[in-house]
Every structure is written in structure tokens, then in C-alpha cells.
Write a structure and sequence with these properties.
The complex is a heterodimer of chains A (236) and B (66). Chain A is an alpha/beta fold and 236 residues long. Chain A has ten helices and nine strands. Chain B has one domain: Signal transduction histidine kinase, dimerisation/phosphotransfer (DHp) domain (Helix Hairpins, Orthogonal Bundle), CATH 1.10.287. Classes of the chains: A alpha/beta (236), B mainly alpha (66).
Chain lengths: 236, 66
């Protein structure tokens, strides 16, 4: 179990973050050249890559030992599965921040990934800068889904009917989708942090979502909230 | 390696192609933007681009078109 003293210093306030000062990152990617390339590229963008691994087992040990601010996990790790690894890591410490990384824009994979509890979902199509922004957002307590997946999130055919959200629940999910953290939402709406948490919990329950980002994705898909302009779906 | 004939093979192929493609783009960007690279670094990065390019070619050659 990792401690709570995180060294990350990120300027939050919108989904557009460009001021990463120090971000301790563990990188789990089975493709050696990409792993080494990311280490270099993310290092140039301000990330401190404290550990890299090519397998799920090795990655799990590194995350347990190094307690990074955020971990970047490839979904397909050779014979291993990055989504299963994410479930294991979050089973041991639900506060861990994990961004799943994939070359596939497959919709089912996306929703399986979000179900695993990962707070971020980034595509390999993105630039290093986009990836760093996603990592910083997640390390700072937010959520991220690559904007290229917005159409998949929005167009997925619904096979279930969800209970309608209250106006307050919609308002809060909408602000989360714009990149605000729970605390920032509370401040903006002049509510207590606990009240905001209760609304989020109720919205997640109505939407049968396992995580905040999953709730945002479902709320967007079902038309409860509108897609934010600009970058990826994000919420704290 | 992707198996296009199997269910989800196309998605697997896309993932497999994008992985080395990300290497190509990333190291090409480094080569284009970094002015202070040593000759050794330039050779190293160029080799990585080349190897990833060859990997992409192998993947494409392995795709069976019906």
C-alpha cells in the first residue's frame, strides 16, 4: 500500500494542463522500442520515469515498490492483460492512478478498461504532449478519455435504460467532464465536498458505473450531459 | 502478432501496427526537433525508426486479404 505523500505539482483548473513540474511515473509496455522511446519522450516533457517494465508481473512489483504518482499501462502486454493488471493493482490500493494505453480504439475494450477502475484511457495515436497532459490530469485526481474515442463513447448503442439523473447530478457530472476535481466542483457550486461525493455516488449508482470516468462516459452516451469542447473527456 | 483471421483480429492488428508506428513518429520527432543530439544518438534513433518501420512492413506482409 502506498503512502499519500505525492510529489506531483500540477496546475489544475481545466483539462488543458501544460505545467507538469514533477510527475513520478511507472511505465509498463511490452514493446521494448516503444518503452524506451516513451521513457525518452516523456522525460523530455517533464515526467520523471522512475521505473519501466515489460511484463505485468514486473510492472506490478514496480508499482507496489515505487508508489508512483501515476502508472501508464499498455492494455496488451504480450501474453498478459493490462486490464487484469489494473484490477489487481487497484484491488490492493484503490487510490492508485492508472492510465491505460492502447493502439486499439475498440469500443468493448474501452468500456472494459473503464470498468477496471483505470482513471485514464489514452490512445497511441496521441502525441507525447497529449499523453503527458493525460498523465498529469490523472495524477492530479482527474479522469481522462482520449478525445478520439468520443464518438465511440457517444455512439455506443444502449442496451439498458438508466434511471434519470437529477439536475444537480447532471450539473456535477458535467463539471467533472470539463476537468474539474470533486473539490473544485464543491467550491464552484458552493457545496460541501461530502455533498458532492454523495451526488457523484448516487449518479454512479443510477448509471451502474464503477468509476467516475465510467459514469461520465455513460452520461455522455445517454445524453445526460453534453461533450465538453476541446480535449479529452476529463473529470476529477 | 496479430491474427486477422480470428475474432477481433483487426483490432489486434491496429494495436500491433500503432505500437511501432508510435516509435517511428516519436523518434522521428526527436530527430527533427533536437538540435544537440550526438552522432551516436542520431544513429541510435535512426536505427529505432528503421527497425520499427521494418516491423510495420512485416505486420502488413502478414495480413491475408480474401
Amino acid at each position: 500500500m502506498c503512502g499519500t505523500t505525492r510529489e506531483t505539482r500540477v496546475l489544475l483548473g481545466s483539462a488543458d494542463i501544460h505545467h507538469v513540474v514533477s510527475l513520478r511515473l511507472v511505465l509498463i509496455e511490452d514493446h521494448q522500442a516503444l518503452r524506451e522511446g516513451l521513457e525518452l519522450l516523456l522525460g523530455r516533457e517533464g515526467c520523471q520515469v522512475v521505473g519501466t517494465a515489460g511484463t505485468a508481473a514486473e510492472g506490478e512489483r514496480l508499482v507496489e515498490r515505487l508508489c508512483p504518482d501515476v502508472s501508464l499501462v499498455d492494455i496488451r502486454l504480450g501474453d498478459d492483460d493490462g486490464i487484469d493488471l489494473t484490477r489487481r493493482l487497484l484491488g490492493n490500493d484503490p487510490d492508485r492512478r492508472i492510465v491505460l494505453y492502447t493502439g486499439s480504439s475498440d469500443e468493448e475494450l474501452l468500456f472494459n478498461g473503464l470498468d477496471s477502475g483505470a482513471r485514464g484511457y489514452a490512445l497511441k495515436d496521441g502525441s507525447p504532449r497529449e499523453l503527458v497532459d493525460a498523465l498529469a490530469l490523472v495524477a492530479g485526481g482527474g479522469n481522462y478519455v482520449d478525445p478520439r474515442l468520443r464518438s465511440a463513447v457517444l455512439s455506443r448503442r444502449s442496451t439498458e435504460r438508466f434511471k434519470s439523473l437529477s439536475n444537480r447530478e447532471r450539473e456535477i457530472l458535467d463539471l467533472l467532464a470539463q476537468g474539474l476535481t470533486g473539490e473544485q466542483v464543491a467550491e464552484k457550486l458552493v457545496l460541501s465536498a461530502e455533498t458532492v461525493k454523495t451526488h457523484i455516488r448516487n449518479a454512479m449508482s443510477k448509471l451502474e458505473a464503477h468509476t467516475r470516468v465510467h459514469a461520465i462516459a455513460i452520461a455522455l452516451r445517454e445524453g445526460f450531459i453534453s461533450p465538453p469542447d476541446g480535449a479529452g473527456l476529463a473529470g476529477g | 502478432m496479430a491474427e486477422p483471421g480470428k475474432p477481433n483480429g483487426l483490432n489486434q492488428l491496429r494495436h500491433d501496427l500503432r505500437t511501432p508506428l508510435t516509435v517511428v513518429i516519436g523518434f522521428a520527432e526527436l530527430l527533427a526537433s533536437e538540435r544537440e543530439l550526438s552522432d551516436e544518438q542520431r544513429r541510435d534513433y535512426a536505427e529505432r525508426v528503421l527497425n520499427a518501420g521494418l516491423e510495420i512492413r512485416t505486420l502488413i506482409d502478414g495480413v491475408e486479404l480474401d
